[in-house]
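User: Sequence in, structure out. Go.
Assistant: Echoing your sequence, followed by the structure tokens.
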Amino acid sequence: MREYTINSKGVKIKAYEYSQAGEPILFLHYMGGSSAIWRSVIPSFIEEYHVIAIDIRGHGESDHPQKGYRLETLVEDVREVLDVLGIHKTHIVGSSLGCSVGTMFASIYKERVISLVNSEGALVNHSGPGGLYMESKEEHFNKYFSNEEQEFDSREDLIQYMKRHWLPWNKERALVMEDYKPRKLQNGKVTFVSMRDNMRQIAEDLYDRRVEEWYDTVQCRVLFLPAEKEGDLDKKLAFIKNVESKLSESKTVVIPETSHAMMFDHAQELIHEIKEFLKCPYKVKLPSVGEHP
């Protein structure tokens, strides 16, 4: 694996290149995670694909500036990474936040995306009719971001906490944490890498986005992977049905028993669905005028 530190308008973005075998495939992680979440998935792609993963700004080994977390900025970070690595077109596989970044990238730089895999992200609006959340924006963010950051006496204490609370603890989760570097606090304690205030900025930017508008200009094939057990599956399937008519090719798969971060508990099923999608185009017949799908 090769590591790159790429300057994106003064912010350092960490990128990881695992292979150079074939077509590029870029993995984008969920909020609060890092490229490490894909460690149980990436080995299955390195023989056939040019595999890249990045730490989104405010995550992992990338810089954590206090400002600059609009989705457009995260998209430009991706563009900068691809430009520096000399990659013009790529597949994109996202989880949650990574799906939002990938889908907006595909809507802006449509000629640069071969296909898009959206695992539990960019599948529904956060607010508004049919959205995930019914409370006010203020109520929502007070609920999720008002608590103080957790503090631990040492890295080992943090890891032990994760083993007790990040369940079911298994080899896939252990892979993520094996070289985890907690953020050091001024009082000598440690906490999780991503700052709560930075994640709140991302979440606030996403809250009022009309995700369906991104698909207006997406030209690549899209695989939708909503989780069966995460909740709001009906809302997500209704959203997907609405936007798939805008796409030339798409496929929707609900892997049984999956939750939000399916790469940990259903890695092999996730790998299978992605590989099948990448190698075999699924043609979708678009309805004619007056025809109901």
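User: And one key feature?
Assistant: The longest strand covers residues 2-8.
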